[in-house]
Design goal:
The protein is an alpha/beta fold. The protein contains twelve helices and ten strands. The chain is globular. 45% of the residues are buried.
Length: 295
């Protein structure tokens, strides 16, 4: 183990210099992957913008029926035209999403305690690689708890998922979980995202924070920002804008889309920021205009 004594404290993240290893493929950190991996990543990240809008509806795996997601069979197909990737469990995807919806699939493969348990950090790998292949998943999503009681087990889950994915050219997305005792600081996210990236994931889902551009610069794979709790639409669009401006390659919005009273307009406005370089103010005006057109 490296000696922690005498380590240089000051760090230079060179935030003004783009990631270097992208000469043969546009997705960050994927230059040396095989064709199958790149094909899946191309289903996730737009070849034009290099970014993605994910729609997360996997909340039920620990929360049960969530407000806004009571009827997945109605909600998900209605929103699919406005997003690039559907992130859900195999049960929800098989039961509620028509297979002719041609969107990227981020398959939730870890599972564990319900919201009735005080500690959610003890998860297991609930889906094997054969079923991920049957689901035609473009990536497998694994929750990772850095600094929590279940850290070692979740890193073991992640490692086994990465190893299986490499065998069959399916990318892995590490989802940074922030426990109730952990602060959402840039120092924490720099630690968590770097650990997960060095384990071998191809995508990281995490939260926006102060000094986010340093978090991105220090991470050698694409970061997709989680939407988190429901915010007022204008604030959620601002978070999406700041995330992209500071280096994220997309957002994964769940509650900030499906709990909006105008969910399709919200999803479309997020897409304008992620793919068309709209500012948050322009996107909010687009959101309002879209609502007024429907009246």
């Amino acid at each position: 183990m490296p000696d922690l004594e005498g380590v240089k404290i000051a760090k230079d993240y060179h935030v003004d210099i783009p990631f270097a290893n992208t000469k043969s493929f546009y997705v960050k950190g994927a230059n040396n992957l095989d064709w199958g991996m790149k094909r899946h990543l191309a289903n996730i990240f737009s070849p034009v913008s290099g970014n993605t809008v994910m729609f997360a509806f996997d909340h039920g795996y620990f929360m049960g029926s969530t407000a806004g997601l009571e009827r997945l069979d109605l909600v998900v197909p209605n929103l699919s035209d406005y997003v690039d990737v559907l992130m859900g469990t195999r049960g929800a995807l098989r039961a509620c999403v028509p297979p002719d919806i041609r969107k990227g699939i981020a398959l939730r493969v870890s599972s564990g305690s319900s919201m009735l348990n005080d500690d959610l950090s003890h998860e297991v790998l609930a889906v094997d690689i054969q079923d991920a292949i049957r689901m035609n998943a473009d990536c497998m999503a694994v929750q990772v708890f850095i600094g929590a009681d279940g850290q070692l087990a979740s890193i073991d889950n992640l490692s086994r998922c990465i190893n299986a994915g490499l065998s069959y050219s399916i990318p892995t997305m590490g989802v940074v979980a922030v426990g109730k005792d952990m602060e959402r600081t840039d120092s924490y996210f720099k630690l968590a995202t770097r650990i997960i990236a060095e384990m071998g994931v191809n995508i990281i889902k995490t939260y926006y924070c102060d000094n986010f551009e340093e978090v991105v610069a220090a991470c050698p794979v694409p970061i997709v920002v989680a939407g988190g709790k429901k915010l007022p639409e204008q604030e959620a669009l601002q978070m999406a804008y700041l995330s992209i401006q500071h280096g994220a390659n997309g957002v994964d919005m769940g509650r900030n889309i499906f709990q909006s009273y105008h969910a399709t307009a919200m999803a479309a406005a997020i897409g304008k920021i992620v793919h068309e370089k709209f500012t948050d103010k322009q996107a909010y005006e687009f959101y309002l205009d879209t609502i007024n057109e429907k009246k």
